[in-house]
Amino acid sequence: MQFGLYQQQTTGLVMTQELRQAIHLLQFSALELSTYIQEQALENPLLDVKEPTGLAEQTYSTYSKASTDQPSPIDYAHIDRMSLSEYLLQQIQELNLTNKRKKEIEYLVFSLREDGYVSRPIQEICDELHISLAEGETILHTLQSFDPAGVGARNLQECLLLQLQRLDTPHIIAEQVISYYMEEFASRKWKEISKKLGITVADVQEVNDVIQTLDPRPGSQFVADPVQYVRPEIRIVPYEGDLLVHVEDDLIPSVGLNHHYEQLLQNEQDHEATHYAKQKVQQVQWLMKSIQQRQQTIVKVGEAIAKHQRDYFLNKKGILKPLTLKEIADEIGVHESTVSRATTSKFADTPRGIIELKSLFSSSVQNGFGELASSRQIKDWMKELIASENKQKPLSDSKIVSWMQAEKDIIVSRRAIAKYRDELGIPASSKRKRFV
């Protein structure tokens, strides 16, 4: 082996600051990009930012479903949601109790989890309050009488019982089942329960129906993320039997050079100020170019998607065709990750409502004729099939596989059907069975 110095040429991708910024901006939503531009303006005095004009007309709440209806004014309202602890503390003040007892219940309120359950053993809370266990049980029972029903429970069984006891019409059998046969009930050993209680399986089925109306997490209704708003960044519009796609440029601030600082570039005496100004001008130019590239990429991706999903947008009964990120990437000559960034958290105003671009992609399954069916289409068929099944003899995953092959000529595995069913939130056939 010889040692020495040698020259060697290699090729490689150099991640320049400009490229890094372009990638960074592409993954932003319109709201995030607006925030980013405002932050840059605070750091760069040469960056001139003008607020977008399309904000009021183009902002929608993510609570709104895809629809051709106009957004409701409620979508723009600020929602001031009361927390669980605030709601409970409000109820404490309405009780005729001593200040000491109110403080003890307040302490217990702050020992609750977000779902409304007591987070620690009552004995531990009693020790901290320097009260007896009997007193602790008393204040717990007081808290459990509050709304929402089930709050202050120590476990799921107690939570369900607290709610059953609040029903307008008492359900004695349901209370017995939950009190003494909770484990068997959860395991759907309904015949075993019916024999022990001397009731019919149909009675246990009725208990199940009642339990389904209860809330296993009574505090969850007070836990909510802030309302998220989206701005459709592209429009997909029908035009003479085809689709036009254009980007909404007026949703983000317009960016340019602040000419009030141009004299800094002309100051030959202060070299440091001139160097600083040139750096800031370059940053503005990079930002302007990155925004332009971002908009161009999004509209290219949108056009390619619209071409593939043309039938879905133009026909009310149209279905999504199988489509992958790679197909779009190959078509417009970019990397698959670029398409992923250009579609994540990006929404389109389409004839089918406000839709996230990412949701227009779907995996595929091949049928007997070599044609492809999207996984979403299969899920739609599954929902329709299960909705119309005989509930006393629900279809197993294997039977759904057979139906797909016989009726739709789709060859799909039982494991895939089980996966799609889970994604749809549909329980297994044993959990869907009814006895009446």
From TrEMBL:
PROSITE patterns: SIGMA54_1, SIGMA54_3. Keywords: DNA-binding, DNA-directed RNA polymerase, Nucleotidyltransferase, Sigma factor, Transcription, Transcription regulation, Transferase. Transmembrane segments: none annotated. Residues 80-261 form the RNA polymerase sigma factor 54 core-binding domain. InterPro entries: RNA_pol_sigma_54, RNA_pol_sigma_54_core-bd, RNA_pol_sigma_54_DNA-bd, RpoN_core-bd_sf. Residues 275-434 form the RNA polymerase sigma factor 54 DNA-binding domain. Pfam families: Sigma54_AID, Sigma54_CBD, Sigma54_DBD. Belongs to the sigma-54 factor family. This is RNA polymerase factor sigma-54. It comes from Halalkalibacter kiskunsagensis.
